[in-house]
Design a protein that fits this description.
This protein is of the alpha/beta class and 277 residues long. The protein has eight helices and 16 strands.
Length: 277
């Protein structure tokens, strides 16, 4: 499957402008014969929403929702948005559109609420990590901070996902002698997911500035069993094209015994013991 990641800086609170950008990128990807296009976290709205969130929320069946469904007749789309499925209840969500319909929604469970982050004041957390189909592949989605909890990717590993997609609004932080530590953090997780969970892993991060916060880009594709094989630019807008192959997952699972020898029942037993100790 030919996949495209679009690394850009959304206009804060301007859903119309952002949707126009999505439509232009979809048209370009269709022309380039891509099959799936993935945008960053909150790609339709921008990040620092605060009181704007309810005004710009995506609603099932609404005008913007229908526009995305229409765009998905030509190519599969994953976009990020504040989502209002119940009146007054907002989620930080990723929505997968395919063949003219919304096929899957992932609602962010790990909402940071410290320092520069105020998501817990705006959104209700999600409570599930369900694999879904993208064409011939089993897929899963993580949103930003969820990526930093390896046990959440493990839930998709148990569901034998071929493709894990992480979308993010990660600032660039921790500049030192070895570069920017936030980039190293995301890339380390890419190595873990591809090597130990044998997943093709696509990480899509935004760029640009909001309220003095600079977002770092650095999107990448990690091939199952090999680690990171492609990177987008740091800081600047960019496009990353990758090819996802089921054969790479099979080869990685044969080469290692992690999936064969995993013992989820043992993990569950020990978790129950620890939680009830």
């Amino acid at each position: 499957m030919k996949v495209r990641a679009v690394q850009f800086g959304p206009a804060l609170g301007d859903v119309g402008k952002n949707l126009e950008f999505h439509a232009a990128q979809v048209a370009r990807a269709v022309k380039d014969k891509r099959e799936l296009i993935v945008f960053p976290e909150l790609s339709l709205s921008g990040y620092q929403l605060k009181d704007l969130a309810a005004e710009v929320a995506l609603r099932p069946g609404g005008r913007e929702w229908r526009q995305l469904e229409k765009l998905s007749r030509a190519i599969d789309i994953i976009a990020g948005a504040p989502l209002e499925e119940e009146p007054g209840i907002l989620r930080n969500a990723a929505v997968y559109f395919s063949r003219g319909q919304a096929r899957h929604v992932h609602r962010k469970a790990q909402l940071p609420n410290y320092g520069m982050f105020e998501e817990g004041m705006v959104f209700k957390p999600g409570d599930g990590f369900h694999a879904f189909r993208i064409g011939p592949f089993s897929a899963g989605i993580l949103i930003c901070r969820e990526i930093l909890f390896p046990m959440l990717a493990y839930l998709y590993f148990l569901q034998k996902t071929d493709l894990l997609i992480g979308i993010s609004n990660s600032p660039q932080r921790g500049i030192g002698r070895d570069g920017i530590s936030s980039f190293q953090l995301w890339e380390t997780m890419g190595y873990v997911f591809s090597q130990f969970y044998q997943q093709n892993y696509l990480f899509v991060n935004r760029v640009g500035f909001e309220d003095g916060i600079g977002f770092g880009g650095g999107s990448f594709f990690a091939r199952a069993g090999r680690g990171i094989v492609q990177k987008a630019a740091y800081v600047d807008e960019d496009i990353l094209d990758a090819e996802v192959r089921a054969a790479d997952v099979r080869r990685a699972r044969i080469a290692s015994s992690y999936l064969r020898d995993d013992q989820p029942a043992l993990v569950l037993k020990e978790m129950r013991r620890i939680l009830h100790a």
